[in-house]
Specification:
Layout: E1 2-6, H1 11-22, E2 26-31, H2 34-37, E3 43-47, E4 64-67, H3 80-103, E5 110-116, E6 127-128, H4 139-151, E7 157-163, E8 165-167, H5 174-182, E9 195-196, E10 198-200, H6 201-213, E11 219-223, E12 229-230, H7 231-242, H8 252-259, H9 264-267, E13 271-272, H10 275-279, H11 289-297
Parallel strand pairs: 1-2, 1-4, 2-3, 4-5, 5-7, 6-13, 7-11, 8-10
Antiparallel strand pairs: 9-12
Helix pairs in contact: 1-6, 3-4, 7-11
Length: 298
């Protein structure tokens, strides 16, 4: 297949590129400055998001587009200006993806558009599936809702890839979560009762390809492992795997002081189930957190 990826030089994008190339797919990366990142052999780099660019001319005949573009939510305090930037970085690129698809004579069969389980808001009691619609209660739920509404205008089969906390060995949240334990100062964040809906990076890649190949997959799809845990359970498993202590709790008030509103990423959570992936019999490589952590620390 021919697969185009916007945001292909990020954490998830690089993992997808590597896996897709290994499986003999043709990969195209949409980039603002392709000459600066063109480091992966076998990938075709296409410039976009400049006024004069017409990337659709190079994308005719592709089978799927994956949109991962957008600034990282954890890259700075959520000031009013930062919130605007985070939203606009997602809306502008998604609008351009939609424009490209509408312009193409031979359209791809599917758009896989990144999203997040932040759509569901935060709750320690409820269990969410793709069937749940919720009131927009915080910044994350608002940003995800607007992002998804824009992607839904594509006019082709669209999968809204609602990502949980993605665990990878060298990038993403996991290296930051594991560091205190390596330094012998690991412990529970906040109350520890907040749910953690996680997914291994290999399953993000595998489930994305599964959605491309299975036409029944469309609309919102939760990209989370089928066995969420609490933050306290996560910490104990991490300590056990690393043979490190788990006894330095980090109070909620300290995290709120350090991170501001962004602290909700660590102090709040959602219990989210991948109902659609399970129903369509996607086979998770890492359904158990202990095996996922084992694979990452190796």
């Amino acid at each position: 297949m021919k697969i185009a990826i916007a945001g292909g030089n990020g954490f998830i994008g690089k993992a997808m590129c590597k896996s897709f190339l290994e499986q003999q797919h043709e990969v195209y990366i949409l980039s603002r400055q392709p000459q600066e990142i063109a480091t992966m052999p076998g990938v075709t780099y296409i410039r976009w998001m400049h006024e004069e660019d017409r990337p659709e001319k190079h994308l005719e005949g592709i089978d799927a587009i994956i949109n991962l573009a957008g600034q990282s939510l954890s890259s700075g305090r959520w000031t009013t200006k930062r919130k605007t930037t985070l939203l606009e970085s997602r809306l502008s690129t998604t609008k351009e993806i939609v424009r490209i698809i509408h312009t193409m004579e031979w359209k791809p069969s599917v758009l896989i558009n990144a999203s997040a389980i932040g759509y569901y808001g935060v709750s320690r009691d409820r269990q969410f599936t793709e069937q749940d619609s919720v009131e927009l209660s915080d910044f994350l739920s608002h940003i995800v809702n607007e992002w998804e509404q824009e992607a839904a205008k594509s006019g082709i089969r669209t999968v809204l890839m609602r990502l949980g906390v993605v665990l990878g060995a060298s990038e993403g949240a996991f290296p930051k979560m594991i560091l205190p334990y390596k330094l012998f100062i690991g412990g529970t964040l906040g109350s520890g009762k907040q749910p953690l809906s996680w997914i291994h990076i290999d399953d993000v890649v595998g489930a994305a390809l599964y959605c491309i190949n299975h036409s029944a997959m469309q609309g919102a799809v939760n990209f989370t492992a089928p066995k969420p845990v609490t933050m306290e359970q996560f910490g104990h498993l991490l300590a056990e795997q690393l043979h490190r202590p788990h006894y330095f709790p980090v109070p909620s008030a300290l995290l709120q002081l350090m991170l501001g509103e962004m602290s909700m990423l660590l102090l709040e959570g959602q219990h989210v189930m991948p109902e659609k992936l399970l129903k369509e019999q996607y086979s998770f490589r890492y359904a158990e957190l202990s095996k996922a952590i084992q694979s990452l620390i190796r």
